[in-house]
Amino acid sequence: MSSTLRCLRVLDILAEPPYELSLTEIVARLKMVKGSAHRMVRTLCEAGLVEQDVRSRLYRLSPKSFWVGTAFLRHSAVYQAALPLMHSMMERAGGMAHLAAWHERALMYLHTISQPGESHLFAEIGERWPLHCTGLGKAMLAYREPREIDLLFAVERTRFTANTITTGDAMKREVARIRARGYAVDDEEMVQGVRCVAAPIFQRDGLAVAAVSVSAPTSLLTDQRIAECAAIVCEAALRTSMQLGFRPPVRE
Fold first, then answer.
1. Backbone angles phi, psi at 101, to 5 degrees
2. 192 located within any domain
3. Global pTM?
């Protein structure tokens, strides 16, 4: 089992920048002897999941690894339910539409739809971003177990801008605001000059497992437009949640 896990770790490190590594670099990252690392890399090459560039001799993930990974989307109920709604959400709210899922106390982008010429916050499918500084992440965090905040902030969080939340106490106050209004706002907390409005997607048991959002430059997503865009995003999130079997509580 240990060898199998280390073999899979090769896939993990090749999935991170710079995406291509020499055998020596793989050995250094795995902290193992060169012979063992070489056998693992060759095994992955034989399986078709890793390939070696004939000129640079660097190893990288192969097209087959992409096919294997995208099976998650082909089988994802969240992706299938949200995708048709994202186009309408983007057209009504403007900006760029995003769908992300909770993954190991980070968010993983499942899809991004942009207007022609927009590139202010484009995210590749499978890209992982922090929870603490994104609307998508905070929208999910607000509807997870409270201990998730303590676990997240047990290690130092990166400050990306002056608005980034970097302490657990500040995040707990932010979570209370999110739950009170039903949506999260990334107010230039990840990228200066960009705002994002996000809402959680719930599975049948009420756990937030994903989120949708719209993002735009602050010049377009003004204070006056946040509530309008939030209503559109919340509607898309609720419709997606209901397709997953979630039923909102009845208000008396």
1. -120, 155
2. yes
3. 0.86
